[in-house]
Amino acid sequence: MNMFCFQCQEASKGVGCTIKGVCGKDAVTSNLQDLLIYTAKGIANIVVQNNLNAAELGDVNHEILTSLFATITNANFDEDSIEGQIRKMLKIRDELREAAGDASALHDAAAFQVTDREDMLGKAAAVGILSTADEDVRSLRELITYGLKGMAAYAHHALNLGQEDAEIYAFIYKALDATLNDGLSIDELVSLTLETGKYGVDVMALLDGAHTSRFGNPGMTEVNIGVRNNPAILISGHDLTDLEQLLEQTEGTGVDVYTHSEMLPAHYYPAFKKYEHFVGNYGNAWWKQVTEFESFNGPILFTTNCIVPPKKEEIRQRIFTTGATGYPGCTHIEADEDGKKDFSAIIEMAKSCPPPVEIESGTIVGGFAHHQVFALADKIVEAVQSGSIKKFFVMAGCDGRMQAREYYTDFAQALPEDNVILTAGCAKYRYNKLNLGDINGIPRVLDAGQCNDSYSLAMIALKLKEIFGLEDINELPIVYNIAWYEQKAVIVLLALLYLGVKNIHLGPTLPAFLSPNVAKVLVENFRLATIDTVENDIELFLGA
Ligand code: FSO
Ligand code: SF4
Predict the structure, then answer these.
(1) Is ligand 2 within 6 A of the CB of residue 25?
(2) Residue 484 C-alpha to ligand 1 middle, in angstroms?
(3) CA 484 to chain centre
(4) Would you give the distance in Å from CA 345 to the centre of its chain?
(5) Structural domains in the chain, sorted by start
(6) How many Å apart are CA 484 and CA 396, to the nearest integer?
(7) Which of 39, 296, 402, 416 satisfies CB 3.0 to 4.6 Å to 89 for a cystine?
(8) Nearest atom (ligand 2) to Cα of 74
(9) 299 has pLDDT over 90
């Protein structure tokens, strides 16, 4: 069976995965994910055509988020779970359509019917990415859709914290529906792409507010990267409510909890500091999990992507998924109606496992989200004015397993000592253990947090613009050298473009889903570029 997916940076040959994903996603799962997206578009079509009020769509909104989120790279590899979600969405769609009345003007996505898996796969083949023949229209439709996937992931986390915004849902319906509309011009699709960026800013602000109002403002924190001699659970992904519940349920059980990859920034929040058994961070960015899960010894809880398909049965038995994630053969933990999750099976398993094997020791420093950086503003402004800090390099985004990403370690190392790196997302693991020192007490790597905390980096830029009395954000001594991997990075990128940031360097390669003409539009209007050699880039960024 064939598939076509080009949504992430690892798209095969820089074009697209056609037989099996480089990520490990098989053709059945990939095609079912295409059909799930098509079904979500069908629901959006009904909502838009009937002018339904998103504020009144409760569960429909939530299932749209779950569906988009489940198709993000490395989130859900479980074909049964994707099929189950399609069936759920079709039921919601049909009820919505019947309640709305007039169905005559609806798109096929709002009305098609399927019976079994085979039927679903047949339909998927007809409605996948390549069903849009014009490569520029396809490129823009997918760019918008991937932005929406990232938006949905962040909205889902905010929702878990009880925060939602009907305007974001309304935009998701509008944009999904627009991707079905053959009447839209390229210009209209480009402007919808930028509007997606606006809602990207809004959703990150929503999540930032949800996090900080519940867990406090992140502050400068030293995080232990060594281990203790107790059995332990490793928690990965981005969902802080899952972490909160896990910490509550493990308290007093003798089981320690460690963060992995994008969960590291949880240590920066005041609310989690009170847990004595919340020991530290184990390991590095997502792709190193293959060896790190082996030496961790205990169970692992995935709250979101990035899952690397576990080859060994022993590891698979220790992996638990929750929320939009899934992997065949791994235990999935569902929330009850109140959002509560029962992690007792994970805790019981942990008790029977040996403690983690130490792979590193010492500490790393982070917690430089907007509140902490604003508190240091005087010091930072003084350092800029005195020339102690020459430039800031925003190196946020994702890490990945491709060798080309060594560029980011080399770049951080080669950067002259009067420059500061602002980071967020798992990209940080390429340089956050290098001991790059500090400038007048300000660490040279300032980690704001998760990829969604790129919002903080944008807030910091806007604050500096205000302090320095500048007209344009691009006059700041800030260079954007961003690494991307999956669709959350797409919404972060669109958000930065919406905020007017120009000259973003995106690597290690430009997205396969940008057609030459769409890439040209981004280059001409935003001076978007990719990376070169470390030497040439340092010269380019600092030479003038
Ligand atoms: Fe990384 Fe994976 Fe946060 Fe992504 S762990 S790659 S952009 O999921 O979301 O930074
Ligand atoms: Fe390929 Fe990336 Fe799609 Fe996986 S998510 S199938 S690696 S393009």
Answers:
(1) yes
(2) 9
(3) 10
(4) 27
(5) 12-183 (1.20.1270.20), 222-351 (3.40.50.2030), 369-542 (3.40.50.2030)
(6) 8
(7) 39
(8) 5
(9) yes
